[in-house]
Amino acid sequence: MPTPDSRCPGRCRHDADAHTRRLPSPWVPASSARKAAWRVARCGRWLQTWVIAIPGAGLLWIGSCLADQSQGSAEPEPELRQQVEADWARQEQRLGRSADSAEALAAAVARLESVLRYLRDRLEPARAQSVTAAVAELKTVANDSGAMAPADRLVAYRKARWLTRELALEQSGVCDQPLLFLKRNRFICQMLHEYMGYFYDYGNVPPGGGVFVLERPGYSLQTRELTKGKLPKGNFATLALSYDARTVYFAFAQRSETKPDFYSPQRQSFHLFSMAADGSNLRQLTWGVEDDFDPCPLPDGGIAFMSTRRGGFARCNNPWEPCASYTLHRMDPDGSNIRILSVHETDEWHPSLLHDGRIVYIRWDYVDRSAANFHGLWTSRPDGSCVMALFGNYTMRINACYQPRAIPGSDKVIFVAGAHHADVGGA
User: Fold this and answer.
1) C-alpha angle 310/344/205, rounded to 5°?
2) Do 60 and 51 contact (CB within 8 A), yes or no?
3) Beta pairing, strands 2-4 & 234-241
4) C-alpha span between 194 and 190 (Å, rounded)
5) Within a 10 A sphere around the Cβ of 216, how many other Cβ atoms?
6) pLDDT in tens, 229-277
7) Among 149, 268, 274, 285, who pairs with 335 as Cys (CB 3.0-4.6 Å)?
8) Which of 241, 227, 221, 191 is nearest to 352 (CA)?
9) Topology classification of domain 177-418
10) N-term to C-term CA, the chain
């Protein structure tokens, strides 16, 4: 179980070395593929699972519970191949060159060489040998590309890009399992409004979206919708996955048939829902007029989330624009025992867990300082105690640190750098 870390009274760590155990199939650790494993304690039993989050894209690795079907051929489907190659062409256009240019080919081969150097030790010997030979051949072609026809350069360029993509995907572990993701029609204004159901009605944001599974990520566009026909007209936000990859959490706001009144008890808000990873057992966890979103499963079985339940409003909202403040809360898995973890007077967003057990999230710090420069990363224990600034509260070079995530196998945190009052997008 989490134990206090003497280096800091506000830190916890998971004593994984003493408690980790192997689990029977289908919970097979993927250490052979060099994936980072996050061992967590839950109900006295250690589970080994992996969660891969792509900030801003609402993408999560869903785990072994959805891995009962073959990934099939590693060759991308024609439609996906066409879209990928079209995207490469747009990338080159932004750099002021075409994909069939000598400059683009040289850059593609240089990138491939860099990826091979980074991944060489992870490859099987036979794979490393074949890739090394292919890279050498492409490098020779690139060195003589000035005299080549554009069509021939384009063939070599695409070969280099596809090989780079294959290496990156096969070593990342992203394509070994289906991916869970969220589609949404988001409110286009700023993050103060983005998670309030009221403004989706007020701004006539088109309803729609849902929770989906990408069956063969990296190789196919085939998807399966988990929420189809199960909820009324509304909008989706903020997707999360339990540690055992069996339970999906998300926020949903039903749409009103009439123009909203913020102070009406009938106004629509975001509420938290859960369902099994196969789309069954859909349950609403929170109710009422307050907005609840950003679910974050905790190792003890609880769920941290952001909510307007503390009460209070942003300092700079207009009478026609009531912006309730959301802060860190938590609840039991069934939605009961809701309690406030943070009484911060402005807004907080995007909770997730660090490897030492702390919750990390973004906080808008509006106390005795500029209103537009400080949206840094803060941490607290899962019970809300020992709140500390992690990063960003002393610099104006980054206005906002959206969607922080701990990097597996590292003490580092990745986040999306954004602007004051910008909308977050993604999920």
Assistant:
1) 60
2) yes
3) unpaired
4) 6
5) 22
6) 999 999 999 999 999 999 999 999 999 888 778 888 888 999 999 999 9
7) 285
8) 241
9) Neuraminidase (2.120.10)
10) 31
Q: Give the Cα separation of 82 and 110 in Å (integer).
A: 23
Domain ranges of the chain: 2-66, 78-172, 177-418
Strands 327-331 and 339-340 turn out to be antiparallel
The residue whose two tokens read 């090394």 is 132
Q: Using alpha carbons, select from 297, 412, 372 the residue that is nearest to residue 51.
A: 297
Asked whether 305 and 351 are in contact (CB, 8 A), the reply is yes
How confident is the model over 306-320, as pLDDT tens digits? 999 999 888 777 777
* Amino acid in position 108: A
pLDDT confidence bin for 425, thresholds 50/70/90? low
Q: What is the pTM of this model?
A: 0.79
DSSP code for 76: P
Q: Do 173 and 52 form a contact (C-beta atoms < 8 A)? A: yes
| Angle of helix 102-119 versus helix 125-143 axis, rounded to 10 | 160
Looking only at the bridges linking them, the beta strands covering 359-364 and 348-353 are antiparallel
Q: Which of 223, 90, 201, 105 is nearest to 160 (CA)?
A: 105
Q: What angle do CA 422, 425, 427 make, to 5 degrees?
A: 140
Task: Categorize the per-residue pLDDT at 341 as very low, low, confident or very high, splitting at 50, 70 and 90.
Answer: very high
- Report how far apart, in Å, the C-alpha atoms of 367 and of each of 33, 345, 370, 396 are: 47, 9, 8, 15
